[in-house]
Amino acid sequence: MDLSDGPQLKIYSSQQFLPSGVPHVAMLYPFWGFPPSERSPEMYRIYAELGPRYFRPVPAQDADFFVLPFDWRYGTREGRRTEDVAMAMAARSAAQSFSERALELGKRLIVFYVGDSEEEVPLEDSVVFRTSLRRGARSNEFAMVVFFEDVVGRRLGSCLPLRPKLNSPSVGFCGFAGYRLMPGVDFVRKVRRIARWLRDGIPAPTDTAASGTPLRFNRLHPPRAWRRALRVCRTGPRRILPQPDQYGLHALCARNGKLVD
């Protein structure tokens, strides 16, 4: 089905509600261009060309939906620097003002939220497209489709190389497999958790929500993971690490001669 045959969705947004230093969302790239902070504009090139087929900017009173011009994560960042907190406060204030204007005109508000947090977006009558959510938690939230680079087309000459099947399988993982500190945990469980940290690595805090969401922790340089990764690289026929990582395991395995690009 060619969606371009259907009617355009009439949308309204305004740079008046875009805080200083905050980039606009990808949905608005066809109309506002790429922000200076966008590091991968090539990923959005096709959408930037075809977007006007599906969306049409109109005055506020004629719109089907209002579109919050920035990602909601900018309103939830609690940085370690004063300017980060100030930015979050400015973004929340702008979002609230934009939401109130949508409510005055009886329009629903579209919000994009890219981040690991599951906290609710406190904007009334909003439709939220986000990357982290739980099924059935809130009826106005939907999984967000994200853009990716055409790796095969741009980097591999439009030909996908197939690796031969090995007797010993190789398994890769990209994502988050940590845990969060929860209040009210009994003393014994806390002691056990600390013991796991000492064994597997010291946790490091990530960004937290300005609204006071509990801290989340990522494992930082877990020694046990290093040892296991090196052991895997030194044994078996061949192992695959598909991308560089922040802990340098890619380079370590390359030096051990077991890396397959």
Q: Helix and strand layout, with pairings?
A:
Blueprint (H helix, E strand, L loop, with lengths): L8 E4 L16 H4 L12 H10 E3 L7 E3 L14 H24 L2 E6 L12 E5 L10 E3 L7 H5 L23 E2 L6 H14 L1 E4 L10 E5 L2 H12 L14 H7 L6
What report would you give on this structure?
This protein is an alpha/beta fold and 261 residues long. The chain has two domains: 3-153, no CATH class; 167-255, no CATH class. The chain is built from seven helices and nine strands. The strands form two sheets. Strands 2-1-3-4-5-6 form a six-stranded parallel sheet. A three-stranded antiparallel sheet has the order 7-9-8. Strand 3 (65-67), helix 3 (82-105) and strand 4 form a beta-alpha-beta unit. Mean pLDDT is 76; it is low at 177-183, 203-221 and 238-261.
